[in-house]
Amino acid sequence: MCYIMRSRPPTAAILSSVLPLVLRWNQVPGQTSVQSSCPSRVMFSMLVVDPDLIDYNGLKLSFGSWSSGIYQISISSDVNHASSRTPGTHLAGGNGRPVEGAITFKPDNSSYWFHFFSDGVTHLTSKPLPPGKEYKVLVGRGSGGTGPFYGKFGRALTETSDPPPGSLVLGSHGDVYAPGGQSVFKDPVSGRYVMVYHYVRKNETFDGQSYLGINFLDFSSGWPVVVD
Fold first, then answer.
1. CA–CA separation, 24 vs 19, rounded Å?
2. Which residues form a coiled coil (predicted)?
3. Domain locations in the chain?
């Protein structure tokens, strides 16, 4: 089973497929889409992006809508349709705050689930954004995979406040600008936790080439910390 996102601004949808996928990535000005060569089923239609599936008291699918927040729904046992009402449980963001790309993850030896997400605006122009407004990776944690999730100072990720809630995992630094679009997993070879993400370089055109970043994470403090 695969979940893919299809985006045709100003709408988007998450599709499911039970057959092997052959994907084709199309990107033209004003339109970005991922297409599959196999039949797919539209699960629901709204501005939804970045599907993330976990198994926590049954299958749960989270998705972001950028300015409307990140939500989570239950998925049926046949994994072909939603088994709870949409848009579901509100996990983070909302009220115009730009958040997306959520990953909910539980380290083996932790009692917490961690909700990683990309906050801010990705590199869309040739000029840098006001400091702090660019993409960055934030996190909250909770006792379960369905939230609620809180930052280090106890604020829920769904709160509307300034600065917005969520604890910084990785932001712009050195020549790395606007890191985000992250994924987190445990490396089966080294046994260490890994975060991968994309970014641009400050000394290059901001709307130019993107790079892949790879860092280890350490959870021993109770929060994810980027380490060597």
1. 15
2. none
3. 100-227
Residue with tokens 């991922």: 34
| Structural contact between residues 4 and 19, judged by C-beta atoms closer than 8 angstroms | no
- The answer on pLDDT for 35 being more than 70 is no
Strands in 225-227's sheet, in edge-to-edge order, are: 176-186, 193-201, 211-218, 225-227
List pLDDT tens digits, range 128-173: 788 889 999 999 999 999 999 999 999 999 998 878 899 999 999 9
Task: Report yes or no: 81 and 72 within 8 Å, Cβ to Cβ.
Answer: no
Whether 20 contacts 39, CB under 8 Å: no
- 100-227: what CATH class? mainly beta
pLDDT at 2: 53
Return left, alpha or beta for 108; rule: phi > 0 is left, psi -120 to 50 is alpha, else beta: alpha
How far is residue 226's CA from residue 56's CA, in Å, rounded to a whole number?
Answer: 26
CA–CA distance, 208 with 228 (Å, rounded to integer): 28
pLDDT for the residue numbered 219: 98
Judged on CB neighbours under 10 Å (0-12, 13-18, 19+), 24 is: exposed
Share of the chain above pLDDT 70, in %: 77
Q: Determine the Cα–Cα distance for residues 188 and 9; give it in Å rounded to an integer.
A: 38
